[in-house]
Design a protein that fits this description.
Keywords: Coiled coil. This protein is mainly alpha-helical and about 80 residues long. It contains two helices and no strands. The protein has one domain.
């Protein structure tokens, strides 16, 4: 069975470079999509916390103070 014409070394190099460039573009696109998904997740989590704070009738300053006390308490207990 006759074979097709073989690619020259230069053609093979060019084809690999084009493939790598295309894959890099794809990876950049996928990375941007992943970062957007992380941002969406973070927003949802913050919305959930905000809803809890609102339902409890607390001011953000009160929540900050309570969290700081809690963190200090945990650090003291961990030592």
């Amino acid at each position: 069975m006759p074979r097709g014409q073989r690619k020259s070394l230069e053609e093979k190099i060019q084809a690999k470079q084009e493939l790598i460039n295309a894959l890099n573009i794809r990876m950049e696109s996928e990375q941007r999509e992943l970062e957007e998904l992380f941002e969406q997740k973070k927003r949802k989590e913050l919305e959930a916390v905000s809803d809890i704070i609102e339902d409890a009738g607390l001011a953000p300053e009160e929540v900050t103070e309570v969290l700081q006390q809690y963190i200090e308490s945990r650090r003291a207990n961990a030592s």
